[in-house]
TrEMBL record, chain A:
Alphabetic keyword roster: ATP-binding, Nucleotide-binding, Transport
The keyword Aminoacyl-tRNA synthetase is annotated on this UniProt entry: no
PANTHER family recorded: PROTEIN TRIGALACTOSYLDIACYLGLYCEROL 3, CHLOROPLASTIC
Record-annotated ABC transporter domain positions: 7-244
Domain of life from the UniProt record: Bacteria
MF terms in GO: ATP binding
Name the UniProt record assigns to this protein: ATP-binding cassette domain-containing protein
Gene3D superfamilies xref list: P-loop containing nucleotide triphosphate hydrolases
Pfam family, one: ABC_tran
Tagged with keyword Plastid: no
Automatic annotation (TrEMBL), chain B:
Alphabetical keyword list: Membrane, Transmembrane, Transmembrane helix
Transmembrane segments: 164-182, 194-218, 257-285, 306-329, 341-365
Keyword Transmembrane on entry: yes
Keyword Transmembrane in record: yes
Protein name (Swiss-Prot/TrEMBL): ABC transporter permease
Signal peptide: none
Pfam name, any one: MlaE
Entries under InterPro entries matching the protein: Permease_MalE, STAS_dom_sf
């Protein structure tokens, strides 16, 4: 049985002036999986995420999301696709003039026929599902800590029950307990909502805890994909260093070479 | 194959929920999602809800069902996956903490008034604090001349002084033109056209030249001060300076305020000169007074008017600078407060300049200058 790819990137080339970011990049995200995207700083992980959601224009290649080529779609159809994904930016990217609940209500306002009470109730539900206390609903983003802003960003990304969730470094800057709770939250949400998750991260603990598959970005393309166990067998120097370094050993419980 | 795919897409696109009501039982079929929630009719009393026909459900649908269940409805025909979702949602259901009781209206009014008054007093206190900090920074800079931020001072003199010359000059020239024209028109019936020179000279030298310059500079520079200091504050640059043993008062505030104090009298002079030029031109055109006559009449105007105008300039500059710096340093860590403080700084600075001008008028009248 072949799995359905919800995101399908083929032969992508992205370039800023003379600076080449991606060349001949292929990547699939399958339905219901959590894909971790890793790579050195500046290897274009975030650019890839932005290219998929249409914030960067690529010079060549195709990007299909939910079976549709986004760049070729007319406005209304494009919006329909955009309502089926959720994006969480690094620092939450909340609207600073709105409270947390109003932030989560923004995407819900696109739904016709929803009463104010329903919208409010749903927004509060999403805030609670993202692990924030009820009283955070009325806080403005500037009144929240970095971890809470990330959770509020996640709540907004989940507002319309997306099929695909894009997360840009969700655990960066969180304390280990908060990061572990975030990992569990992502797993719980995936199981409950059957999400497909595109997760850009540097956090080896997150890779171990949640990801079904890992894609390594290096040399302008996806160097290799596979499970964490597969990654340990890859013979590329950077990949070897990444998954066998001291931090990797600590994250995997002391013995990455156990197999 | 093409039609096959199109049909599949179509089935994905159609977000349909049909509800069949039959003797107190709602039969739902189709998709129960946030998009179809409006087709789920509100039931006033408890009913049985049959969900056997529901193909897809999201958290919004599950949330609605949890609410109905809490209201006493009975849910039947729930698939195992949907039951799991329902469980997740009901587990995550937020617990509302009771809001604080709202006070009575009169108390709210008193509360708001009190807060506003205290806020205003605190604001005045802060302005005094920043004035003191600027002066003490000046004192330290004079005692340790090597630490004096001379480069920065020159840069800000250029920004607030030189760059403002064109706008100030053009504005004052036009004011002079207007005064000359209107003054001649009003004085002609009395045969007192010749006094138009006194009118222009006194009003421009004493009041309008410096006041309008101060207002322009308040708009230009107070906003720039707040925005630059505020964005540095927002990005923790000022905290970084403190940890590097750099004194923000000395490095940031002093050169900005000092540049204003040095430049505003010069701008006031530029403004007075171009105002007189405009007035002279207008009285030449309108009244046929040659520039030589204008100059001769001008020599009779008391020099004290010019002195009064120049005395006010450094005080206005200090007001603008201190208000702009205080607003910039009070910016929080969000973009919203940066915008709010910038506009508040401009409004306060213009307001304070006009108040100070009124106070000066009274003062000079009493002193007899």
């Amino acid at each position: 049985m072949t799995r359905e790819a919800v995101v399908c990137v083929r032969n992508l080339r992205t370039q800023f002036g003379p600076h080449l970011v991606h060349e001949g990049l292929d990547l699939d995200l399958f339905r219901g999986e959590i894909l971790g995207v890793v790579g050195a700083s500046g290897s274009g992980k975030s650019v890839l995420l932005r290219a998929i959601v249409g914030l960067e224009v690529s010079q060549a290649g195709t990007i299909e999301v939910l079976g549709k080529t986004l760049a070729a779609l007319p406005g209304s159809e494009r919006r329909a696709v955009e309502q089926r994904w959720g994006v969480m930016f690094q620092d939450g990217a909340l609207f600073s003039s709105l409270t947390v609940r109003e932030n989560v209500e923004v995407p819900l306002r696109a739904v016709p026929g929803l009463t104010d009470a329903q919208r409010r109730g749903l927004a509060e539900l999403k805030v609670s599902m993202a692990g924030l206390p009820w009283k955070a609903n009325n806080n403005y983003p500037s009144e929240l800590s970095g971890g809470m802003r990330k959770r509020a960003g996640l709540a907004r990304a989940l507002a319309l029950d997306p099929e695909i969730l894009f997360l840009d470094e969700p655990t960066a800057g969180l304390d280990p307990i908060g990061a572990a709770a975030f990992d569990r939250l992502i797993l719980t949400l995936r199981d409950a909502l059957n999400l497909s998750v595109f997760l850009v991260t540097h956090d080896l603990d997150t890779l171990h805890a949640c990801c079904d598959r890992v894609a390594v970005l290096a040399e302008h393309k996806v160097l290799t994909t596979g499970t964490m166990a597969d990654m340990l067998k890859v013979d590329h120097p950077w990949v070897h260093e990444y998954f066998h370094g001291a931090r990797a050993r600590a994250a995997s419980g002391g013995n990455p070479d156990r197999d | 194959m093409g039609t096959d795919k199109a049909e599949k897409l179509k089935s994905l696109e159609t977000r349909e929920l049909s509800v069949l009501s039959e003797n107190g039982c709602l039969f739902l079929s189709g998709e129960l999602t946030v998009w179809t929630l409006m087709r789920f009719p509100p039931a006033p009393k408890a009913v049985r809800i049959d969900l056997a026909g529901v193909t897809r459900m999201d958290t919004a649908g599950a949330w609605e069902l949890v609410q109905r269940r809490a209201a006493g409805s009975l849910l039947t025909g729930l698939g195992s996956q949907h039951a799991h979702l329902l469980q997740t949602v009901s587990d995550a259901l937020p617990v509302a903490t009771p809001e604080r009781k709202r006070s009575a209206r009169l108390r709210l009014l008193l509360d708001a008034t009190g807060r506003a008054v205290v806020g205003a007093l605190v604001y005045l206190g802060q302005l005094a604090e920043y004035l003191g900090r600027t002066l003490s920074a000046l004192g330290r800079a004079l005692r340790h001349p090597t630490r004096f931020p001379l480069t920065s001072l020159a840069h800000h003199c250029q920004e607030t002084g030189l760059r403002a010359v064109p706008i100030v000059a053009v504005m004052s020239f036009l004011i002079g033109v207007v005064l000359g024209f209107q003054g001649a028109d009003q004085l002609r019936p009395f045969g007192a056209e010749i006094f138009v020179v006194d009118l222009i000279a006194i009003s421009i030298l004493r009041e309008l030249g410096i006041l309008l310059t101060a207002i322009i500079v308040a708009g230009r520079t107070a906003s720039a001060l707040t925005a630059s200091l505020g964005s540095m504050k927002m990005r923790q640059e000022i905290d970084a300076m403190r940890t590097l043993a750099l004194d923000p008062d000395l490095v940031l505030i002093l050169p900005r305020v000092l540049a204003l104090v040095l430049m505003l009298p010069i701008l006031g002079l530029v403004s007075a000169l171009s105002g007189l030029l405009g007035g002279a031109m207008m009285s030449w055109i309108e009244l046929g007074q040659s520039p030589a006559v204008f100059l001769a009449r001008l020599a009779d105007v008391d020099v004290s008017h010019a002195i009064v105008g120049v005395i006010k300039a450094p005080v206005f500059a200090l007001i603008i600078g201190v208000i702009g710096c205080q607003a910039g340093m009070s910016v929080g860590n969000d973009a919203e407060s940066l915008g709010r403080m910038t506009s508040a700084a401009v409004v306060s600075a213009i307001f304070a300049v006009i108040i100070a001008d009124a106070a000066f008028s009274v003062f000079f009248a009493k002193v007899g200058l």
